[in-house]
Predict the structure.
Amino acid sequence: MTVPSARGAAVGRGIGIGLMNTLWRPRVLGAWQVPATGPVILAVNHAHNIDGPMLMGTAPRPVHFLIKKEAFIGPLNPFLTGIGQLKVDRSTADRAAVTNALGVLENGGVLGIFPEGTRGGGDFSSIRAGLAYFAVRSGAPIVPVAVLGSERGGRLIPALPPLRSRFDIVFGEPFEPGDGSGRRTRTALDEATVRIQERLTAHLENAKRLSGR
């Protein structure tokens, strides 16, 4: 098992902080809810490619994100690997990615996951079972995170939100989705996934109220 570099993730966080605060105006709410130590899973809605870097630059701790392998192309491959990010093949059961992600949690790190699996409406309408598996297997709490404002395209660079526009990043209350038994059967994970979706959807609605969006 090759555990991603914690030092690399810290470097990535520093890069993210500089980039996000230079190009945009992130407003962070509830960051205190992220446990200061120990394994944590950040479950983030996903409406834009900028959501991952935004979280890396605004989360209170360095984050190792599970990122689709298609992003690891050319010079981005050594860069993303160097800053502690995890490559995952979404077309198959990627055992290496699962092992590395669990390694992050076993070492007390922060794992970032887009539970919808891919960029979409950003409304947590479709949750994959992988998030439940990581949480139940590791015992790590899930912190729901809502990124709001990234879905708007800019005029200068259409693929990116308008420069100096405001984002809201809202962290929610940590929770454990399992039933306390530690079971990892298909039924137990399906039930945990339902609980996760309910909590994430409720957090997104609350985040919209808090941020006024």
Q: What stands out?
A: The two ends are 42 Å apart (CA to CA).
